[in-house]
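#dry-run=false #mode=assembly
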Amino acid sequence: MQFKPIYFFILICTGFLVYSFSIYMYPPTSMNGLTNDEMTNAAEGKMVFQKYNCQSCHQIYNLGGYLGPDLTNCYSQEGKGELYIKAMVQSGTNQMPAFRLSEIEINALLQFFKAIDKTGSSDLRKFHIEPNGMIESNGK
Amino acid sequence: MENKQTNFAKLFFSTAMVVLFGAIIYGIWAAISYIYPGFLKTQLGFIALRPMHASAALFWILLGATAAVYEGLNYLFPNQINQKIAWTQWALWVIAIVGIFTSYFLGQFGGREYWEFNPYWALPIALAWLLFMFQFFSLIRKKRNWPVYMYMWMTGIIFFLFTFAEGYLWLFPYFRKELITDLTIQWKVNGSMVGSWNQILYGSSFYLMDRITGNEKVGQSKLAFAMYFLGFFNLCFNWGHHVYTLPTEPYIRYFGYVVSMTEWIIFIKIIYDWKADWQQATIHLYNIPYRFIMAANAWVFLNLFLALFMSIPAINLYTHGTHVTVAHSMGTTIGINTMIIFAMAFFAYEKNNPRDLKEKIWLRRFFWTMQISLLVFWLSLISAGIQKGFWQLEANKNAFGDMMLNLKPWFILFFISGITLGISISGVLFQLLKAQFAKPIKTSN
Ligand code: HEM
Ligand code: HEM
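#status=ok
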């Protein structure tokens, strides 16, 4: 029998589609702490984050730009929180430009930070290494 | 016989080259912020330059990959390329590029990392790609028993379109609301999309080796197909290595980890074939496209070694979110992708202009300064990244700003090697540009 690469191709494509849809359909348990409203508001805030391109310098869960710090947990970190974030965004720093956000936008942004903070911690010190090389979070 | 058809390989190569030149200027400009924080931040600062640089780099690769496929199609199906479709495809790209860079310039964003423009501009790109796919399939269905590189082109073309569309799922509130799934999908897309253009470019490099060495049996061998399927499998399933610290379900991370580790096979194969490859290389070293392919192979070796380590979660803990990742992204996009596109471009122009490009002394110089600059560039980013990695895990870490200040010596090295890298790449571009406009040399037979 002749070797038909196209069958292999179709097989892998099918696996890929099944895997993709399983990811689209089953949210992880880390989202369980959020209500539907919180999720909707956070999604709005995420759009503000994108609109002002915060990701060019900042990371969420260590993914994003490299010029500024990770912001996953800035909402709950000691000495930070809502007022601090607001002040930072409005006045900027040496490196970071000052942004002129509307009141609605800034509130949405805060909702996003609040929600993403609830899903877990991006602090790498709060992970441990398993014998098989995988890392697991110790929680917040 | 006079050929009246437009040479679309050259059209797309020259467009890609303009974009690459932009990428270099924007990259150097963006890097100034590492040395002088806040450089031009109220006029045209890092916030605009980073997306300009990253998008231009990606467009260079995508246009270069398109050109490489046209180069192959032109040879395999002479005079059969549908001119109208190809011109429309090109025009859509030009519209997208002009629109996207204008909007960045005006400070209008709204997209995701690397694609930070308003989603509106994704439409012409998607349409252009759809036309490309149509063109490709209407030609290749005329052939039976495809060599492996045709499978690779097909895979890359289909999966680019799929991942590109998937990258816009966040436009639907259903996806946007699920913050963690949304981030998972974003990095699933990035991982698979890189895999897609790699399929096109590795396929092109395969095609090129066939043409240069005249050994067409290799493209039908079982081994070639086995390697293709390994790459394809990784394209589909290795992206879990981007999200080890994201609170996803564990199976996603484990699956990505296990699949990534299968690429050790490729790494071992490279070592195993080393001698034979070197012997081949000494025969063809005078050949400029071949030389760029050899450079790409060397960079595959170095980058794969780094990438395999980064894909082990215990090590990723130290490299994640640091400049080791940046070293990896630029190391691969420049060292591997860009070298292969250069090889294809020189191949396309060389036929036009054989003597002119063969023993160019400046080309050789730029080739070597490019390799050396890239090595320094890559190592300086890795060093900065490792230092930051240790900082991230310190129990009592000092402030972010202080840490960045400590990295400054590495950033200065990064900046200087970035400039010499930029000059070398521009030098090579200039040689290609000259070939583009040079009159074809008549070969007497
Ligand atoms: C030519 C081939 C490749 C290219 C162009 C490429 C490109 C990229 C890019 C652009 C990123 C995103 C960087 C960011 O987060 O900002 C990345 C991340 C990554 N790549 Fe690759 N890649 C290639 C091959 C590979 C291979 C073969 C592996 C593994 C075997 C790999 C493993 C990784 C890992 C682990 C990360 C995540 C780093 C992190 O965020 O912690 N890459 N790559
Ligand atoms: C062929 C040429 C180049 C290509 C294909 C390329 C590609 C890329 C890519 C894919 C990224 C995204 C990295 C990530 O998110 O991990 C990036 C970022 C960057 N590149 Fe390049 N690059 C090139 C040349 C240069 C040069 C010559 C410089 C000059 C120093 C440069 C400076 C930068 C800077 C500053 C960043 C942003 C890093 C950050 O986010 O902090 N690039 N480049």
